Amino acid sequence: MVGRKGFCASKNEVAQVSTQVPSLSFPLPLLDQGFSLLAAEGKIIYIQPMLTLKCSACRRKLWKYYKIGQGEVHRCHKDRIKKVWNMEERGGKVYCSCGNAVGIDRGSYYTMDKKAFTYKGTKTNS
Question: What's the predicted TM-score (pTM) here?
Answer without folding.
Answer: 0.64
